[in-house]
Design brief:
Length: about 625
Amino acid sequence: MTVRYFTTPIYYVNDRPHIGHAYTTVLADVAARYARRLGHETTFLTGTDEHGQKVQQAAAARGLAPRAHVDELHVAFRAMCENLGTTHDRFIRTTDADHVVVVQGALQRLWDQGLIESRRYGGWYSVSEERFFPEKDLVEGKDPVGKKPVEWVEEENFFFKMSLYRERLIAHIEGNPGCIVPAYRAQEVLGFLRQPLEDLCISRPKTRLAWGIELPFAKDYVTYVWFDALLNYLTGIGYPDGDWRERWAESTHLIGKDILTTHTVYWWSMLMALEVPVPKRVLAHGWWLMGDAKMSKSSGNVVSPLGLADVYGVDVFRYFLLREMVIGQDASFSEEALVRRNNAELADDLGNLVNRVLSLVERRFDNRVPEPGPEQPLDVEVLASIRGLEATVSEAVEGLMLHKAVDSCAALVRRLNRYVNETVPFTVAKTDLPRAGAILHVVLSALAELSWWLEPVMPRAMAELRRRLGADGRSLVAGASIDKGAVLVPKHELPEAPVPAAESPTPTAAPPAPPAAPAPQAPQEGVALIGFDDFAKVALRVAEVLVAERVKGSDKLLRLEVDLGSERRQIVAGIAKAYAPEQLVGKRLVVVANLAPRKIFGLDSQGMVLAAKHGDALVVLCPDGPTPSGATVS
Ligand code: MSP
């Protein structure tokens, strides 16, 4: 059996987990689950980075000793892993006793070999990045990574002779295509290495930073947080005494693109100095952006992964993370995009398909998986795509392009829907039951295979799908009992987009929520008074409903076409729970006619219907007498 070793970065405990952390954790978990599925003995390590200035500052800001702070905050990262269903073998903390031993051992060894030496040093230091930057790298006097202020710091310090390794690093990267994924990131590192490589300051005087691992050969210093943190990957598998070499030879570090230099240049030169082979691969993924900005604590635009997984389910959240980001590139995060993926690909394409075929099996085949039948050309084609899934997924997994594994699963589901539309088993069942059974057998076999290959991404939902199919592992069993069960993946309403302030004529005249708000809130104490001029900005008109229909996939929304006298408009209104579409056709309503258009559930909404709301009851406002369409309301 071959082995595999996957790691995530260890996360700073200066804040709560956010989606950037959740992403790498899920990605590594999916990689580990796929590796196990493909028969590799797999180790998966994640954890927290607990030393250093950022953490010391975060603790101080909370009025806590660093130890109390990290003991409390690291729990949030453990909870994130639990909540995301990750299958890590160890959650390492850099404050763990065995890690401290490894770090001090490595420092001592490099000191003994003369690869660390003491020097007086002055340099530009960034507190936020916790490192010195050469003057030439500063951007407008600020650090080039976080664009934060730097300060000139002069002190006696200890240096790791990283500059000795420049040529070997270049030779390694050039001689091992695939050691940095995606390949274009290797070019970035080579570009960095074309410049002169400086030695690395690996100490901090305790007078400036007390919270760290003490240098075994200089008691007044602690080690630089990155020197400490990177070694976690070796501690996690029992270096230096345990049986770590085989796994190390098959190691993959999954990281974000912002920490690629530390993971290749710093880390690999440290390893070369320690005479440990460099890891097999480093995968650098892109950033999740909110709008155009990286999501980060300092930007104040973070999305809590735990909240989203709670609302939409862990499996849906994991699927979205894998499907939405092409590995290596940046992706935009929005809750709306998550709901759209869920509704289109999971609820509609997959969930409906499962529901339709299992219903037919229940009704016409006595709840048992039908026997296969003679294969027709269309069946042969679909059976070939089912058999092809393993190869496509394996290739994606081995190349670490995990999003492609999910893409091929989604493509198979689309192919199956086409197959069902082409072979119409529901119609065929009326005249030729064995053929309908044969078609269903093809579809159910495909679903069993799909559940097997999508399970690393959606562990709970796919295990549940296999249970419903009565499958044995990835194989369908003719005659096995099926269990249609409830909806496999529910649909969700699109989240309400906040209306930018500029779109609202006044806070009271056009309340921002719900979308196409049917019911402005009843006047309440404390609501600001507005002048007549403000009220006059709102164009209220009488409109006759010409067409009304439900919005597919929503139980709250109706799509209306209304006559405004001079024009016809489409309005999406949240009144479907109170009115059936047919009750509205021909009615004259009052609408806000000058509300900026918005997309609601993918449809343009060009106005807002007024309604009164009392508790759960909701009634639309209508003129109390014959009034032409377009009449003004004031
Ligand atoms: N502690 C160091 C890593 C040491 S590994 C030996 C660290 N921690 S971190 O908590 O700041 O960041 C951890 C990871 O989260 C990094 O890989 C970073 O790229 C990732 N992300 C942080 N924000 C992100 C996004 N908005 N999007 C995707 N990932 C990003 O760095």
